[in-house]
Structure to design on (1827 residues):
């Protein structure tokens, strides 16, 4: 029985894997007296496995935090919209990550990270099926080291600098792609057809996002020309923002948002609890977004610096918006404080590893002020964005990308990002500006094309009646809060239209 | 004095209010109600069970007016609230015996 | 003063422990010039401590994620029930983990992991007080390695394959036990007495869960006979599901759910915000549930594979339910999409380390479709489950356990789970089928016995008046949302009963 | 092209840093054949980097969990207050961490951890700009080891026992400081001016918190005299509690809370969903709070013990309050169960690394009972604390600090905290008692001074009209739930005042 | 025409509606109210303070009917809403001066 | 019998209730309404757009009383609800044709 049990032990519970690993790793240690062939090699292998183990834990945990941002976006966006559209927004934000998963798996990843030309990836295109020799132990690791002369055997060489397993790389990149898609959701809320949004999300993650992603992170022409974007102010946020802007234009404003007389009507969000909780989720998620983009724990220095910079910009962003709103709008509007925090976070995303903590504080502060002005501006332009996605992601995505140039610090860039360009601030700024231009041109144009194709084929906007009654019933047959008495003001007054 | 109880579509609230104010009516009282009528409710689904929502959201506007404004007010409300589709609602007219303004103690038409 | 301060330094802040550890670990390094007795041994010890350190971090962080699932269950279950019962459901879901903690500490752990026979654990039964030589450093670690000849000195040998400290093992297993208990809560919601639920939870975690757990993970007869369940489709979800099914039968349906005329009445949940946020929490938590079940970070390969499989099945589960609901019910019901995501997650829980990513996608997709059909079926059977717990956990727990056989991949099972059986798919399927049978037989029967004992003694169902008025006031004297006007429809119409 | 791509690879994606690190670390491994100068040194350096890497990951992840507690406090506090003040509470809880970030960066950190005298820090005071040789690799690490003779070159010697980078230390300490500030928010809710609260928060984190913090954790006179507080029952919770008590006294009770006739009126919280979710968030966050206070993963033993102790006290705290409420108040009030859980957590915060798991269970149980009695008591004393912050943080902060003495276990203190004092329980109790006294004296007095200064200058309480109408509109111009019909009872009846 | 204001227990709403529809009454308007009366409120606890909830949830059904249906309607509602326990509610009858259907402009019994 | 519809400030609800109970009135029905009137609404901001909240929260208390209590009741409510500032509200008096107590079937003053 005892032996059966020993046997069952190994079988019964899953991580027998670990035992094997441990065995492989630790055997030489305990076999010391058994005179191992090369104790030194055993120790080195052991170390390599641990190094990759630590790095994978870091990459996966931070990726989970970024995944968690889906909850943040769902809450912020639904909270800042009306109760009658809440189910619809939640459904959109929920399904968008599922769609992104399929889309990025099937094609997006290959297009972004596959070896190819300066514009798109061409190898290992479908289903992440290309060769990659990660997780890299021993010699294979050396092969992934650019200083090494050992040849890397794989088709995703643009991301071979991190030793973590291929699926860890995939998941980390997937959650970023999902973020870009989810940004669109808020800007087009309260009027878009569920089906149309779903299809656009598939297209965005399969085509648009990976292409500009390839330019910057996948070995393309921007990254090779000194353009820098640490964790995606441009790659993720601006791209999402441009796609959202195209959607806002294609859809037009919500009924009643801009009165016949040109008046801008407020359509208050239905739950500040949702909105505030959502932003706290996002703030937390960003601690995965930026520090995780090292894709290695290293010796802790870089991740700690990046984390503090991220937090600093979030704090000053919130305070910047608080002050701006207090002065301009007389009272500190909570939704503006929340947007300000996100603005700071978006803005620091590109430069977090290239600038000092003090600069981070300034970048965030400015971002917070900017977001309030941008919200006012978009409303003046009659671009109806219920949740402020354009002001947060597009405007501050650009601001962050440029701020990297304005506050560029060669010492930090060497120590923390290890991607120093050696340029002066004004030179770096010009490089960044060009990158902003190319990314914007492609992302906006491509999105516009997709939106109009959808508009012409299936239609992208719900009927007037459905919009007035709320998309929850129209699109899903569900209501978000059937037990509560909802005021009639959530139904748009026709006099406003 | 008369009391009008107007059951209208929620999105007509502001228009009705505007129309009444245009007549010089200064005050009114509004509440959320749910109405059953010729307008058919819709069927919603929840986890596979169909259920009919008969009670549709409406807004009830209660407004007390002097007798002489009655006709005008009814017309104004009718015009503002009309879409021509089932469910536009009703106006019910009642007679009010007395009105008291709490702040001043005024009574009657004064108090409206 | 200076020395006082040096002194105070060590005392003032807590982790002096770390210094000691660091000392032990690093001393030999810096003492090199001081000619240490055996520098090699020092390095090996150092490595062992780090290996266990990494693994413990991984185990604890993933366990925290599983703990976090309590929030997910609380939100999903309360969101899918009526506002008038919300406090009660929150209270149940909150207290159930506290109860599980005590229950599993006092007896459950020992029964599950104590050395014993093929059916129950017998050693170290009470209060986790048995010997265990974890965390295993140096020789002791070798002792926990099944390939080693050094003898393991302890009474929890079924879980000696992971080197992490005993309390880390305990906590990780505890959060799983808590999950099983929390599953019951949703199915019996809106009519069960608070006290009866509390006592059943104690019993479930003290007796029922650990017994089948012992069979599969604790050295019992199922695990030793090639039955495989990586992270608990059967051990956790089916067992919770069977206990829930017994509860649903013992309680009967909610008043008004099934009309006199046989009509199935919808009783909509009161907050889609809660429900959607809850499922996002659970999705995140599952990244602890499955990848954490390696109980070691290893070299990252296994945890990355498992994580991606988990996410893939969640995504295809959501999409599967979306499509099924769209086709069958005409509109994409959000609550079904949410259930579909959970279905995919439950389904992939057993096979995540035994099947390829492509198979994971199919398993999830099928689970998502299945859950919609199961919800419809249980309603036809007049088994009233307000939140779909049976469809999600029981049906998909079984599906996942069987899917492991249907999609069994020996290569993946070797590389990722390291628990390959070498059987063919059909052989493995038959083994799984038998396991499903035994687990179901025991868990359902034992639960039924407990429910009826409670029914006969203290009663398990609240009075009709209390059910109509809502359990919040009846059981707790609190209301969940006293400031909001709640519609009368949340009070069941008598005409339906 | 190929070479361009190789080039772009390194540039395109950010963590080139990692490559460098990896290079530094791994080079000696692969250069073996190239006869490295000293392979042993390479391995040791490699190990040091990994050790610090693991520890930094642990410190940052646990710090993120503590950051996440901001969401918990926001939810608990807003949930236990009225709907009409919800935006205001969310805004306060949101901005308080932003304010703390600035405040602790500019001055708080230096005052707390700068080398100085027994009362305050004096070096490296401003902007965390003092020297520190962390992250400590190789020799520098030895220098941070108190047993080493190598001299530590820095000004934050009180926290030089952990090898993690300075910014990691800063962030971990910052989230603790933020917690202290957020505690105040709940107690003063529903009547305080937004601006006054904001300024008080700045002052608390810049002055009051760091001073007592210095006494205990920063090399000051309490820590050097055997006073022990592992993770801050006193440093964080009591200090927050004293500041809150001063605020409650300075403000007076909410209108209508205590009737003219001396009757204590209930003012129910508006959302049990928020409150329950909030406490689950806090429970999770505490797994960062206590186990993270090791500031090192070590070999896993300490963090696992502390985690289990933390969870145990949370569970028994919830059960203790449940039973007490059930007996005293006839029904198990959910808000009391929630407070009970928090009470257990606060109580175990100081002793978690100094007492056995069994003691932890008792400490929590007692804390849970205590909190119910304390809530009743404060109401009798007409100290109006809407959310129970005083009962949770102040009363249980004191209880936990004293419990460390009552249940002191020298073995656990050596193995887990590594901060054994060697005193008997009654001696340790007396030491703790004195600490409680000094901390209370300073924190309460200083807070009182600040509150009265604010009261005399800008005023701290909103007008009666604003309080009746709700602070959401008065302070922010926003309402939290504009789409829902809110009952008139949320507006205080004048007859009560 | 008469207006019935029926204050009933919330869970009786569908039965009352059914009873009225059985009489051929096609429309009605419902709202959530809170009632005080002979039915005692219950005592709830919140954090140790006892408080009485005097205002109990009720549903108000407003229905306008032609004079001739009055008796029947009152009986139907009474029957459907009755449980025999305190708190069953009341029916208040008012006289309506005029009814206007907004959609069509019809007035009087036509418009009901 | 008379019906009083009192539109008052929400925070006056309990006082008005107390005043009526002091007169021996046992029952009443309350609902949440929103009122427009001489009391100016306030301007709120949301994301930079100013909007006026005209509809201010009020409570409507409906109470049926015997004819003889009318004067007293009006005075009691007026006194209890008065603050002297705009927005104190109104009392509207209607005549009730019949009252039926559902529980017992009693009618008229008996049933109140
Ligand atoms: N007899 C009635 N008594 C009270 N309210 C009524 C009555 N008939 C209709 N209503 C109210 O008027 C609303 C509109 O009525 P409906 O019959 O749907 O449309 P229409 O007014 O266009 O004929 C209903 O939703 C209901 O609130
Ligand atoms: N005088 C009244 N005026 C207005 N509504 C009343 C009056 N009396 C009772 N009600 C309403 O009728 C409901 C039931 O009355 P109650 O006295 O509790 O029971 P019953 O009708 O069985 O005597 C109350 O909750 C209240 O809404
Ligand atoms: N003509 C009216 N018809 C119905 N309700 C009215 C009318 N005038 C006022 N009210 C109600 O009375 C409330 C108070 O009226 P208002 O004119 O603001 O102050 P006051 O009563 O002090 O003159 C309004 O908010 C509204 O609910």
């Amino acid at each position: 029985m005892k032996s059966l049990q020993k046997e069952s032990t190994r079988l019964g519970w899953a991580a027998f894997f670990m035992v094997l690993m441990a065995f492989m790793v630790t055997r030489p240690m305990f076999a010391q007296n058994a005179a191992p062939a090369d104790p030194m090699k055993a120790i080195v292998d052991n170390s390599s496995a641990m190094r990759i183990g630590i790095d994978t834990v870091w990459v996966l945990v931070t990726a989970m935090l970024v995944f968690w941002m889906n909850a943040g976006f769902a809450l912020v966006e639904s909270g800042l919209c009306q109760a009658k559209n809440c189910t619809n927004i939640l459904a959109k934000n929920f399904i968008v990550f599922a769609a992104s998963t399929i889309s990025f798996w099937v094609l997006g990843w290959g297009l972004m990270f596959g070896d190819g030309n300066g514009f798109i990836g061409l190898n290992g295109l479908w289903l992440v099926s290309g060769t990659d020799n990660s997780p890299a132990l021993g010699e294979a690791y050396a092969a992934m080291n650019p200083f090494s002369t050992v040849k890397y055997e794989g088709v995703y060489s643009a991301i071979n600098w991190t030793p973590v397993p291929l699926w860890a790389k995939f998941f980390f990149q997937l959650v970023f792609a999902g973020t870009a898609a989810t940004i669109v959701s808020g800007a087009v809320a309260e009027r878009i057809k569920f089906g149309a949004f779903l299809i656009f999300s598939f297209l965005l993650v399969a085509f648009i996002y990976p292409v500009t992603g390839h330019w910057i992170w996948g070995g393309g022409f921007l990254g090779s020309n000194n353009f820098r974007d640490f964790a995606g102010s441009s790659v993720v946020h601006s791209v999402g923002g441009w796609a959202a802007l195209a959607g806002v234009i294609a859809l037009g404003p919500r009924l009643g948002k801009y009165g016949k007389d040109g008046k801008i009507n407020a359509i208050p969000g239905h739950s500040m609890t949702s909105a505030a909780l959502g932003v706290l989720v996002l703030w937390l998620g960003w601690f995965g977004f930026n520090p995780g983009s090292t894709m290695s724990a290293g010796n802790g220095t870089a991740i700690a610096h990046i984390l503090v910079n991220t937090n600093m910009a979030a704090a000053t962003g919130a305070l910047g918006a608080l002050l701006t709103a207090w002065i301009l709008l007389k009272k500190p509007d909570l939704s503006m404080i929340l947007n300000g925090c996100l603005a700071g976070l978006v803005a620091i995303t590109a430069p977090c590893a290239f600038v000092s903590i003090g600069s981070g504080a300034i970048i965030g502060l400015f971002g917070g002020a900017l977001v309030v002005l941008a919200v006012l501006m978009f409303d003046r332009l009659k671009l109806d964005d219920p949740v402020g996605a354009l002001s947060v992601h597009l405007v501050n995505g650009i601001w962050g990308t440029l701020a990297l140039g304005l506050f560029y610090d060669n010492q930090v860039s060497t120590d923390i990002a290890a991607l120093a360009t050696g340029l002066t601030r004004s030179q770096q700024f010009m490089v960044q500006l060009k990158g902003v231009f190319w990314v914007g041109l492609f992302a906006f144009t491509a999105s516009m094309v997709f939106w109009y194709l959808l508009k012409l084929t299936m239609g992208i906007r719900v009927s007037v009646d459905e919009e007035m009654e709320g998309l929850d019933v129209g699109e899903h047959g569900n209501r978000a809060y059937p037990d509560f008495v909802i005021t009639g003001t959530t139904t748009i007054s026709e006099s406003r239209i | 004095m008369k009391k009008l109880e107007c059951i209208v579509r929620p999105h007509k609230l502001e228009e009705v209010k505007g129309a009444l104010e245009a007549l010089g009516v200064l005050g009114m009282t509004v509440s959320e109600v749910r109405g059953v009528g010729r307008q058919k409710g819709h069927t919603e689904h929840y986890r596979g069970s169909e259920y009919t929502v008969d009670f549709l959201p409406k807004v009830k506007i209660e407004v007390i007016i002097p007798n002489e404004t009655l006709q005008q007010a009814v017309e104004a409300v009718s015009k503002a609230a009309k879409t021509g589709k089932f469910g536009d609602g009703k106006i019910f007219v009642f007679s009010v015996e007395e009105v008291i303004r709490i702040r001043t103690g005024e009574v009657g038409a004064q108090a409206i």
User: Anything to note?
Assistant: The longest helix of chain A spans residues 39-79.
